[in-house]
Write a structure and sequence with these properties.
Elements (H helix, E strand, L loop, with lengths): L10 H24 L16 H11 L9 E4 L2 E3 L3 E6 L9 E4 L2 E3 L1 E3 L3 E5 L6 E8 L5 E9 L1
Parallel strand pairs: 2-9
Antiparallel strand pairs: 1-3, 3-7, 4-5, 4-8, 6-7, 8-9
């Protein structure tokens, strides 16, 4: 039986050897990539970080954006002595905020989403309502005061 060939010289043997070499190279490349051999810069993630963990950490460090103070007046045309509601597009400012009508301070009732003011009996014409918070934010709206 001198004709017998070694397994590695047959087609199945050659295919097995080539497959084993490809598998070994792929495993080595994967291990090297996981160890950071192919990264262009320092790896800032810890091994336990996932995409969600990294995003939530970034959200914690972001500075909160402060929406500018703004409000709507309901109704826009009012009578003297009438109560007017100031509805805020942002959370209502704290009770320490000041409300002015034509640069005159007004008493106010503060609720979680709005404030209520009463138009003084000696005002008429166009009025400018201004709300000022302790941190310096200011918003204004105009109203018409009749009768």
């Amino acid at each position: 039986m001198a004709d017998e060939q070694s397994f590695w010289t047959t087609l199945p043997g050659i295919l097995t050897a080539v497959g084993a070499i490809i598998l070994a190279v792929a495993t080595l490349v994967t291990a090297m990539h996981g160890a950071g051999f192919f990264s262009s810069g320092p790896d800032t993630k810890s091994p336990g970080d996932t995409a969600d963990n990294v995003n939530s950490q970034e959200k914690v460090t972001e500075q909160p954006t402060v929406e500018p103070l703004s409000f709507s007046v309901i109704p826009k045309t009012v009578s003297r002595g009438q109560e007017v509601s100031l509805y805020f597009n942002t959370p209502a400012p704290p009770p320490s905020s000041m409300v002015y009508l034509n640069n005159r301070p007004l008493p106010k009732k503060v609720f979680s989403t709005h404030m209520v003011i009463t138009i003084p009996s000696d005002e008429s014409g166009t009025g400018l309502i201004k709300v000022t918070t302790q941190d310096g934010q200011t918003a204004t709206q105009s109203i018409t005061i009749v009768g």
